[in-house]
Design brief:
The chain has 195 residues and is mainly beta. 7% of the residues lie in helices and 33% in strands. GO terms for molecular function: peptidyl-prolyl cis-trans isomerase activity.
Length: 195
């Protein structure tokens, strides 16, 4: 898969510095990488990927620093997530205020990707002897995929996050859990409460 060109600055793209996210030609970016355009239905259409390859992307409005998301159906694309950082699939909607950086959140989580197989569980807070996990969002106390992936979630929401290696355990992996170096991982996260 071809590399996605980087954005220069948010200010150079008028749609990122205004409230014009409804514009069909609006540039969308994630982690300073150019993803594609939003169509009139509000879906992100990345360049180089068909509609079945990209179904949920975060985008950032540089003016208001709001969190937005667009869905376009389909499945995860491993090549795409290796370049993008984190993809999110909402499995069950939540209610109440959306999570923001600085809040303490308690979650149930199950991780998949043991021995490079995204169908193999390596850990769960629901396993015997385990308990829900609490962390402060955006403080670097958890992997980057969790810190960024839970933003905008609500209490009761269940989502599946697919994290690229640099948003998970990177080149070191996590041998104790069977996570190989440079592994793409899936996490199913349920938000139980926030403080």
């Amino acid at each position: 898969m071809a590399s996605i060109p980087s954005c220069t600055t948010a200010a150079s793209h008028s749609c990122l510095t205004s409230n014009s996210f409804s514009s069909p030609s609006c540039f969308v970016k994630l982690n300073a990488q150019f993803l594609g355009t939003r169509n009139r239905q509000g879906r992100v259409r990345p360049f180089g990927l068909g509609p079945s390859k990209c179904w949920f992307k975060f985008c950032i409005d540089a003016k208001v620093a709001g969190i937005y998301a667009s869905q376009s159906g389909g499945e995860f694309d491993k090549d795409n997530v290796e370049q993008m950082g984190v993809e999110k699939q909402v499995l069950k909607a939540g209610t109440g205020p959306k999570l923001v950086a600085g809040q303490n959140v308690t979650v149930h989580c199950t991780g998949y990707g043991k021995d490079g197989d995204l169908n193999q569980k390596f850990w769960s807070t629901k396993d015997p002897g385990q308990q829900p996990f609490t962390f402060k969002i955006g403080q670097g106390n958890v992997i980057k995929g969790w810190d960024e992936g839970v933003l905008g979630m609500q209490v009761g929401e269940v989502a599946r996050l697919r994290c690229s290696p640099d948003y998970a355990y990177g080149a070191s992996g996590f041998p104790a859990w069977g996570i190989q170096p440079n592994s793409v991982l899936d996490f199913e996260i349920e938000v139980l409460r926030l403080e």
